[in-house]
């Protein structure tokens, strides 16, 4: 039936083993080395990314603290400016009140003088009014 030639079988086995040895040295070892280097590179990049996450968290915390400090500083400046504006407004109000009080006293003095002048004027004309009233009564 089957005729197996031992020489041919042994040559095929030798060629197969040589082929495995050649492929191992030319293909499989460089391929495995490349895959190991790639895995190491991926692991290194992953570690760096992990370090970057920590750095990013740290920088974010620093940025937030700076923003909070700036907000506090801005609030302090705003309070200072508001206080200064209130003081300025109060001083202007007091100056205006003093000016209005002075104007009021001057007006009251002027009014009193005018009242006295009018009173004196009316008192000086009382005899004329009395005579005019007597004349009117005499005509009735």
Structure notes:
With 140 residues, this protein is an all-alpha fold. Helix content is 95%, strand content 0%. The chain is built from two helices and no strands. The protein starts with 5 loop residues before the first helix and ends with a helix.
Task: Tag the structure with descriptive keywords.
140 residues, mainly alpha, rod-shaped
Note the beta-strand portion: under 5%
Please report the distance between the alpha carbons of the first and last residues. 179 Å
Mean of the pLDDT scores?
Answer: 91
Rg of Cα set: 57 Å
Give the ordered list of helices and strands. Answer: HH
The assigned structural class equals mainly alpha
Overall shape: it is rod-shaped
Largest sheet: none
Give the count of helical stretches.
2
Query: Helical proportion?
Result: over 70%
Low-confidence stretches: none
Find the count of extended strands (DSSP E, 2+ residues). 0
Summarize the structure.
The protein has 140 residues and is mainly alpha-helical. It has helices at 6-124, 126-139.
What does the secondary structure layout of this molecule look like, with pairings?
Blueprint: H1 6-124, H2 126-139
């Amino acid at each position: 039936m089957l005729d197996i030639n031992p020489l041919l079988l042994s040559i095929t086995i030798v060629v197969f083993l040589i082929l495995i040895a050649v492929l191992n040295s030319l293909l499989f070892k460089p391929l495995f080395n490349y895959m190991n280097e790639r895995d190491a590179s991926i692991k290194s990049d992953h570690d760096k990314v992990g370090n970057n996450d920590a750095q990013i968290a740290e920088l974010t915390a620093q940025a937030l603290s700076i923003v909070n400090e700036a907000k506090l500083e801005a609030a302090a400046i705003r309070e200072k400016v508001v206080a200064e504006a209130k003081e300025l407004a109060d001083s202007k109000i007091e100056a205006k009140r003093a000016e209005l009080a002075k104007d009021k006293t001057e007006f009251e003095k002027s009014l009193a003088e005018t009242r006295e002048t009018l009173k004196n004027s009316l008192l000086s004309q009382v005899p004329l009014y009395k005579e005019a009233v007597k004349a009117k009564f005499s005509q009735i």
